[in-house]
UniProtKB/TrEMBL annotation, chain A:
InterPro entries: 2Fe-2S-bd, 2Fe-2S-bd_dom_sf, 2Fe-2S_ferredoxin-like_sf, 2Fe-2S_ferredoxin-type, 2Fe2S_fd_BS, Beta-grasp_dom_sf, Diverse_Oxidoreductases
Keywords tagged on the record: 2Fe-2S, Iron, Iron-sulfur, Metal-binding, Oxidoreductase
Tree of life domain: Bacteria
GO molecular function: 2 iron, 2 sulfur cluster binding; metal ion binding; oxidoreductase activity
Keyword rRNA processing in annotation: no
Pathway where this protein functions: Alkaloid degradation; nicotine degradation
2Fe-2S ferredoxin-type domain span: 8-84
Protein name as annotated: Carbon-monoxide dehydrogenase small subunit
From TrEMBL, chain B:
Ranges for region Disordered: 615-636, 790-815
NCBIfam families: CODH_aero_grp5
Protein name per Swiss-Prot or TrEMBL: Carbon-monoxide dehydrogenase large subunit
InterPro entries (UniProt xref): Ald_Oxase/Xan_DH_a/b, Ald_Oxase/Xan_DH_a/b_sf, Ald_Oxase/xanthine_DH-like, AldOxase/xan_DH_MoCoBD1, AldOxase/xan_DH_MoCoBD2, AldOxase/xan_DH_Mopterin-bd_sf
Residue ranges annotated for the Aldehyde oxidase/xanthine dehydrogenase a/b hammerhead domain, each copy included: 20-139
Statement: the UniProt record of this protein carries the keyword Aminoacyl-tRNA synthetase: no
GO molecular function, one term: oxidoreductase activity
UniProt keyword Repressor present: no
Source species: Halopolyspora algeriensis
């Protein structure tokens, strides 16, 4: 980055870990996560907020990280796919459900689906089939045809209920 | 013997890293060393057709953080020559390829004009904005009609915009049609679409001055192809270039083309700057500078008897190949041959023109010409049924190749230059299955009930045969380490198909080792330097077979070593769960890892296991430590190279409802019967079918490249190019399988990757036609287009005679 660009101090808490960063204003959150914090689990599929691959949770709310400037998030909490794994290293419920249901192929869109489902199940812990489809209706997948992703939403809900 | 894994729904081993966000895709490579990595961006032509008068880069040269800026003038030697024409064909009389960076003219919006490398992508894009190019716009050729009219030419030296003209004949179709009791003519078209993987293209390269070696990571379907192309263009020895295909976010065909201009520019820039250089394509770039497919117009003349048996089929079609032909004629050749599907017309003639337009290049997209061919053939069969007033399944049944007719020679030359001979299949059984699965016989009643409620519903069918597993070959290398772990490599690449799982299943079965001890690497030229690539539904057939053969070699050697070690006859030995055992004497066994130790006579011991392998401990004193016809190590390497392709098949059926007011098209039910021979992992196969079908629905109802007359792509974003979300895909898809093994490979497998997409447009067009009562001849079809068709059809019927509109009529009799 050149010295001519004005930089800003920000504090981002990502997956519970605070990071003090000095960033140019135009740095997208997606680029900040991937390039500054090396959290490459968040993928960029379209850079215009349509595909949902880059979805992360900002203070628990699913958000397209390619449409947000990192400097605008000073003091906020961000959860990425890397933060969905249990503290003991085992797969979280949503991750486990996608594994069991073969809900992924190339894995590129998967992180965005998982953060979306993670947030969705907080709102609707026992979704109907229509609700499960609605939950993932803003994310594009080019591999799976979605059948097994919808199945994974139900399975994740089950796993979450069982783990309580 | 442990449980056989072949045929089991084994969970995928690659998922662990993908689910944890630990996949390593090309844009993730070297992210840990950001200061050492530079970033590239490409200035692209804003004109579809123009002469470049001047390029001024003076404002960029002194920019902070910019390391280099190149135009065509900065390239030399092979880099300054046009890109390779990958698949030359004798019929491709006027093949043309683009330059790495445009020289003198540009021929599509998106063609690479200048290249910048900077500290980061933001700065590289800033720099692009400061490059000034003056163009003299030329008239653009957009669409097949404009290409055929040839009032303007894409390339001055290509008359009529015709890159190639090709014809194949079986028997004498024109004469047979003239002699047939019934004749129909149809015009059928399919629009441009694209593979559109969620990860675009990307390449990272690092040049090592100390060893004079180039390391390349690229999101490709053919790493050995990229290696050869980069070596040729950079004028390096093949042995100086390593190409690795990391985790890849989908390909669906578009990543088979190579080298992309960026592959060459990035690798050269890495050499020149001495730093790693990365190019990551953005979505708009993918729309305007990767590749598209599908656009074709077909004219069909068919002669048939009273039972609907095709006596002569004459097909002429026009293929839009875009501005250049790097991938040759593969797509139209596939259409021209695979159009026949499961049928056996007595006489067949096919002719096509492959035409230049000032649009993005055309290379195979999942299905690769088959969706168009299937659409043309299935629409024709439906038209025959409508004309004769016969059930559409009855006309299909009358034309099907029968199970006792295999191997069936269609009398044509296929895309691989080999005869189009179907190896196996059972199409009548498949037709029966799909009829039951969709409820064909019950549909008339459902339709009557729906119509009584003012609803419009329709049913349609699409049948296809897909040549899969084309040659020339793939190989595999199996290495049993002294730990007993089995390291396996094949050269073709993976874009999400689960190869690490499927191939591990094959190897684990052949060697009888636990699946978790098998680790598969794909697409790394350091591990397997001979390979062709991942396309044409060939990975399971080609590399799966090679895996089996290579593992058999390792097994032979393990048994030979074990016979010595156990002082037993090889015939009395068997592999059991990671060791070799004397039959009937389980305690008399030796672990594969120990055999690996024994296979490599050592001078130096470095651990306990290797102590057992030093020359003082091993071997017959009267023989050399490594026999003349042997080599050290417990390894197996082999290649699978079939005589010709193996032919998978399938049938799809759709029930749709069309809204009488809004003309919205809704899929009520969808059923699939699929035959890819023996399935290695049915879970993976079903996933492939689901995904293919979803892409097919995109192609049938939503996806099209909207070019305006000046060659601007108006919908180059996911906002406007409508890929299906979950809301566009039916909630339930019924899938049934038939498994007719291929006799051509040791595992009896056929390819499954592309199948799901092939007949979707055909089936949905048929269903919409059945619901509406007038012909559907062009896909995709939007609600607006269906609405217009209704209007036109209403006008047509009100201005013609009082004759009631013909139900399901899709063509006019011309004889």
């Amino acid at each position: 980055m050149t010295s001519t660009e004005t930089r800003h101090d920000v504090l981002l808490t990502v997956n519970g870990v605070p990071h003090r960063l000095n960033l140019p204003a135009r740095r997208l959150l997606s680029d900040c996560l991937r390039h500054d914090l090396k959290l490459t689990g968040t993928h960029v599929g379209c850079e215009h907020g349509v595909c949902g691959a880059c979805t992360v949770l900002i203070d628990g709310k699913p958000t397209r990280s390619c449409l947000v400037l990192a400097v605008a998030l000073d003091g906020q909490e961000i959860t990425t796919v890397e933060g969905l794994t249990n503290p003991d290293g085992s797969l979280g419920c949503v991750q486990q459900a996608l594994l069991e249901c073969h809900g992924l192929q190339c894995g590129f869109c998967t992180p965005g689906f998982m953060t979306t489902i993670e947030a969705g199940l907080k709102q609707q812990p026992a979704p109907t089939d229509d609700e499960a489809r609605e939950m993932v209706a803003g994310n594009l997948c080019r591999c799976t045809g979605y059948q097994n992703i919808v199945g994974a939403v139900h399975r994740a809900a089950e796993l979450k209920r069982d783990s309580r | 013997m442990s449980t056989q894994l072949f045929g089991e729904k084994v969970p995928r081993v690659e998922d662990q890293r993908f689910l944890r966000g630990q996949g390593r895709y090309v844009d993730d490579v070297l992210v840990d060393t950001p200061s050492a990595t530079l970033h590239a961006a490409v200035l692209r032509s804003p004109h579809a057709h123009a002469r470049i008068l001047d390029i001024d880069v003076s404002d960029v040269i002194d920019m902070d953080g910019v390391h280099l800026v190149w135009t065509h003038e900065d390239l030399a030697g092979a880099m300054a020559e046009p890109l390779p024409l990958l698949i030359p064909h004798p019929a491709l009389t006027h093949g043309r390829t683009q330059y790495t960076l445009a020289k003198d003219t540009v021929n599509y919006v998106g063609e690479a004009v200048a290249f910048v490398v900077a500290d980061d992508r933001y700065l590289a894009e800033d720099a692009l904005g400061r490059i000034s190019v003056s163009y003299e716009p030329l008239p653009a050729v957009v669409g097949i009609e404009s290409a055929r009219a040839a009032e303007n030419l894409v390339h001055d030296d290509v008359p009529g915009n015709v890159a190639a003209r090709m014809e194949q004949n079986v028997g004498d179709a024109p004469t047979a049609i003239d002699a047939a009791p019934h004749v129909l003519e149809l015009d059928l078209s399919i629009e441009r679409s694209a593979a559109m993987p969620l990860e675009g293209r990307g390449t990272v390269a690092r040049w090592d001055h100390d060893t004079s070696r180039l390391q390349v990571w690229t999101s490709t379907q053919a790493s050995t192809g990229v290696r050869a192309a980069v070596a040729a263009k950079l004028e390096l020895d093949l042995g100086q270039v390593d190409v690795i295909c990391p985790d890849t976010g989908g390909g669906f065909g578009v990543k088979i083309n190579h080298p992309w201009p960026e592959d060459l520019l990035v690798t050269r820039a890495a050499q020149v700057t001495g730093q790693a250089v990365k190019f990551t394509e953005d979505r708009r770039e993918h729309f305007i500078s990767a590749a598209h497919e599908r656009a074709q117009e077909h004219h069909i003349r068919v002669g048939f008897d009273d039972q609907g048996r095709v006596q002569g089929l004459d097909v002429e079609f026009w293929h839009d190949n875009g501005a250049y032909t790097p991938y040759g004629l593969i797509v139209p050749i596939i259409t021209s041959t695979q159009l026949l599907g499961p049928y056996k017309p007595a006489n067949y003639r096919v002719r096509f023109d492959s035409l230049y337009t000032n649009t993005v290049i055309v290379t195979p997209y999942r299905g690769a010409g088959r969706p168009q061919g299937c659409f043309a053939m299935e629409r024709t069969i439906d038209a025959i049924a409508a004309h004769l007033g016969l059930d559409r399944t009855a006309v299909r049944a009358a034309n099907l190749i029968q199970p006792d007719e295999f191997p069936y020679d269609q009398g044509l030359i296929f895309q691989d230059g080999r005869p189009l001979i179907y190896d196996s299949g059972d199409y009548p059984a498949m037709l029966e299955k799909i009829r039951k699965l969709i409820g064909w016989d019950e549909f008339e009643q459902f339709k009557a009930e729906a119509e009584a409620e003012g609803r419009r519903v329709g049913i349609g069918l699409g049948c296809y045969v897909e040549g899969t597993g084309v040659g020339p070959y793939e190989g595999a290398h199996v290495h049993v380490e002294t730990s007993g772990k089995v390291k396996v490599a094949t050269g073709l690449t993976t874009q999400g198909q689960g190869h690490q799982t499927a191939f591990a299943q094959v190897v684990a079965d052949t060697l009888d080792v636990p699946m978790e001890d098998v680790e598969v690497v794909t697409g790394d030229t350091r591990r397997m330097s001979y390979s062709v690539g991942t396309f044409a539904s060939r990975a399971a057939v080609m590399s799966g077979s090679a895996m089996h053969l290579a593992a058999l070699r390792a097994k032979e050697k393990a048994l030979r070593l074990a016979a010595d070690a156990l002082e037993a006859d090889e015939a009395d030995l068997k592999m059991v769960d990671g060791s070799v055992q004397v039959k009937g004497s389980p305690s008399n066994s030796i672990a594969l890892g120990t055999l690996a130790v024994l296979s490599n006579p050592l001078r130096y011991a470095f651990d306990k296991a290797s102590q057992a392998a030093t020359q003082f401990s091993v071997g017959d004193q009267d023989k050399p430590p490594v026999d003349e016809d042997d080599e050290p190590g417990l390894e197996g390497r082999d290649f699978y190279s079939p005589n010709r392709s193996t032919f998978a098949s399938g049938m799809h059926a759709a029930i749709v409802e069309t809204d009488p007011e809004t003309a919205e098209i809704k899929i009520l039910r969808y059923a699939i019967v699929h035959d890819c021979g023996r399935m290695i992992n049915p879970m993976i196969v079903e996933g492939q079918i689901h995904g293919g079908m979803a892409q097919g629905i995109g192609g049938a109802l939503y996806e099209r490249m909207a070019y305006d007359d000046s060659g601007q792509l108006l919908n180059a974003s996911f906002m406007d190019f409508l890929m299906p979300y979950v809301t566009e895909i039916p909630g339930e898809i019924d899938v049934d399988h038939l498994e007719t093994p291929s006799p051509l490979n040791p595992l009896g497998i056929k390819g499954a990757g592309e199948a799901g997409v092939i007949p979707v447009s055909a089936a949905i067009a048929a269903a919409v036609e059945n619901a509406e009562g007038f012909s559907i001849t062009s896909m995709p079809i939007s609600p607006a287009e269906l609405y217009d068709l209704r209007q036109r059809h209403a006008e047509h019927t009100s201005t013609t005679s009082a004759r009631p509109p013909k139900q399901d009529g899709s063509g006019e009799e011309s004889a």
